[in-house]
Amino acid sequence: MPQQAVTSRATSPDDPLSQIDVSGFIDATGLAQRLAAIAEADSAGGASNDARAAVLAVLREAVKEARRRVELAFREDRAGFDCARRLATIQDVLIRSVHDFALRYVFPSSNLSAGERMAIVAVGGYGRGTLAPSSDIDLLFLLPYKQTALGEQVAEYLLYLLWDLGFKVGHASRTVEECIKLAKADMTIRTSILERWLIVGDRDLFDQLGARFEAEVVEGSSEAFIAAKLAERSARHAKRGDTRYVVEPNVKEGKGGLRDLNTLFWIAKYHYRVTTSEALADLGVISRREMRLFHKAEDFLWAVRCNLHFATGKAEERLSFDLQAEIAERLGYNAHPGLKDVERFMKHFFLIAKDVGDLTRILCAALEEQHAKAAPGIGGIRDLVRSLRGRAKTIPGTIDFHIDNNRINVSSPSVFKDDPVNLIRVFRLAASNNLEYHPDTLKLIRRSLKLINAELRDNPEANSLFLDVLTDRQNPEFHLRRMNEAGVLGRFIPEFGKIVAMMQFSMYHHYTVDEHLLRSIDILSRIELGELADEHPLSSELLPQVKERRALYVALLLHDIAKGRPEDHSIAGAKIARKLCPRLGLDDRETELVSWLIEDHLVMSMTAQQRDINDRKTIHDFAVRVRTLDRLNLLMILTVCDIRAVGPGVWNGWKGQLLRSLYLETEPTLTGGFTRSTRAERLAVSRERLAARLSDWEASERDAYLDLHYPNYFLTTPLEDQVRHADFVRAAATEDPLVIAVRTDAFQSITEIMVLAPDHPRLLSMLAGACAGAGANIADAQVFTMSDGRALDVLVLNRQFAEDADELRRGERVSDYIRKLLQGEDSRTRLISEQKAKRPPAAFAMRPSVRVDNDLSNQFTVIEIEGLDRPGLLSDLTRAMADLNLDIRSAHISTYGEKAVDVFYVTDLVGAKITSGSRTERIVDWLVHVFENPGSEPVTAGVLAAEKAYGFARS
């Protein structure tokens, strides 16, 4: 393929980026005249401090006005790339004006010597001719030899003015020789110089840098450059979770963001010696359609980034929840039935991120044809600079495809047109032969998507092949992901296409809906392969016994497929399954099973986390819902996969133990008493396991400790937690009624506080109040009453600091608040008054809901409260219940991102249910009031009684 000379924006008159008119935003001539007037009025000719202050004032006014006009124009046209170009060109005008003023008036020099020549060059992002409102300004002061006094003075004058104007400036002063030497040794500097742009100064010097850079650095080194850039890209992706579908993406650095587009163009510019995407299209590297796709993605991402900077007034690159709604409004998105405006905006964002990934693969395919890099394998990019041209191998049973370096490739450009079933068959062949996909294959698939029509969707062979891919025994998620990225999955199953790139506007879900579904398939596959036996022992034991394997995989793929619809997604998803499953080849029994699993896919997790599973009514109601042991097995496995796929840190050992306990409590009900182990046997085994872990204790001490806990503790608490609790209780001094310990967990992003104290109905309320007073938000709480009258309460706090040392200090501060409050050294009211009430993120709105139910338990009234979480919420609710003379028998605290779901099993003070309608109404009204008005409940005699019970006096 012919190659062209490397040129810069400043020397390429055909480059559209060099033809930017900003006369309507800043008047360069008028600015120069105002600066000249300052010099003429100055006794020192412009060199005095007064003149500098006047220059700064003029520049500040010019910059402020220019940026105001750019933002107004941007709000009108929403053209992100144009906004970035305008800001960069305005920056040029500013730097040229200061440079010219300095040379003419501040450091006047009529004839510059050869050694005093200098070029001010924009590099990096600024060198591309684009700037976001708060971008750093990267400058290279290019010198012919070493730095001269004049060059140093001009550079210093310019830099200090830019800093005083509030710009963040990265700069370097180097000779051409130094630039070449450093570019050879450092890929970052090489990339920076690759994106260069002469702002002002000596053009011959700038051209000299370009010529030497091409001849001595670029020539013959494209393989090394490509390898470095792709490795850098992979490392950046890995740092951010290696997915483009995180719901708070980084617009600049995230996968599918601007940095990926930059990397793509750096590689193209370096290897093909071009300066524009149009030139790539002219060379045949990308098509005209793909060129337009590049421009569309670039413009959209710049629009988002510029809006982020304008909205926050700083270099904010993360599209966080509290900003997404505002950016959606700025970009003109509207709500549709089932989808908020912000969700439509974010879906568009993720589709653009997917387009960026497609463009990267297309360019890599073109590079491979020229032997610039090796092909990626399933395990990742390996040996990027090694040529992989090898002999093609046939695939048994087909002549339409062959194996090309362990990748499936098409045998002719018409394979999909000749037989559209091949659009599904290619994924089945790749899965059964453990092959990657040749970039040419994926490129042809994307260009053949229009062949996926109703006829193909109804084709029995195509559906059978798809089901084989979905239930592949090795790596179904990998091939489904390739199918999704190529656009086939959303076309073949249109209902799936509706949730591709769809985000759920909540802090609980970390990924888009399609990403969540694919990750859940991956978890199921890994359990089936035995890779997660230690983490999920029960699911790993159950899965080989499952008879309805196909139904389980189909249900997991479809369980959230109806998200974004006005109807409840579980019910709507079940309806979709009843239509789709027969098409896929499932019989009536499998179809009914899949639809039930989808409709009830949240029931097990909700029951385990929000209900008292030691209450027999809970187990009975759950068993009635499930009906058979086979369904229980399937629901258990599906629930584990669903929770695990929500995001990092969502799954933990406690949730696993709750699910296992619910399963084991329900099993005998469904089998007529026949179970793998009775409750008594499981209790005995749990006690024996803990005793074995405490083998270094004296036998009498160990037996006494085991007798402290009631059965539900052993059945619902993970063994590792039991061991930690035992060590904590043992270490507690018997003469001290209050002992507190702090532990951090960086992976789960939580801090745990264990409190051992005399039990009292208001203990949880007082602990929650102390946490609220310390500004700590309780994400979870486990309350265990012991037989000696003490309570072991475990509070899980949302983490505030990244470093463990900082978080431990914060935990000790919270502990100190707890100690002061329980020991009567401070009052809850004063503690909380010192903490300014923190409202939930402005992006979220949710009215609180309070439900009082007497049917969920035979012994207790169940109060279920939902609403936006906030610091101090648990304290307010438990305090209010105490004021309402309610006795909390068990509490089940759950946090799902921004939403709190707190369930309390209560009685009145004589142990009876709450049956009075008027009292129930007062409870609901007061709890809603407390939810919406932090700290509004009164201090009552009950509070004084609680403090007296501890033997403490109110201060």
UniProtKB/TrEMBL annotation:
Entry keywords, A to Z: Hydrolase, Magnesium, Multifunctional enzyme, Nucleotidyltransferase, Repeat, Transferase
Cofactor requirement: Mg(2+)
Protein's recorded name: Bifunctional uridylyltransferase/uridylyl-removing enzyme
MF term (GO), any: phosphoric diester hydrolase activity
Organism: Jiella flava
Function, in words: Modifies, by uridylylation and deuridylylation, the PII regulatory proteins (GlnB and homologs), in response to the nitrogen status of the cell that GlnD senses through the glutamine level. Under low glutamine levels, catalyzes the conversion of the PII proteins and UTP to PII-UMP and PPi, while under higher glutamine levels, GlnD hydrolyzes PII-UMP to PII and UMP (deuridylylation). Thus, controls uridylylation state and activity of the PII proteins, and plays an important role in the regulation of nitrogen metabolism.
Record comment regarding domains: Has four distinct domains: an N-terminal nucleotidyltransferase (NT) domain responsible for UTase activity, a central HD domain that encodes UR activity, and two C-terminal ACT domains that seem to have a role in glutamine sensing.
Domain ACT: 752-834, 862-938
Catalysed reaction, written as an equation: [protein-PII]-L-tyrosine + UTP = [protein-PII]-uridylyl-L-tyrosine + diphosphate; [protein-PII]-uridylyl-L-tyrosine + H2O = [protein-PII]-L-tyrosine + UMP + H(+)
HD domain location: 513-635
Presence of keyword Repeat: yes
Signal peptide range: none
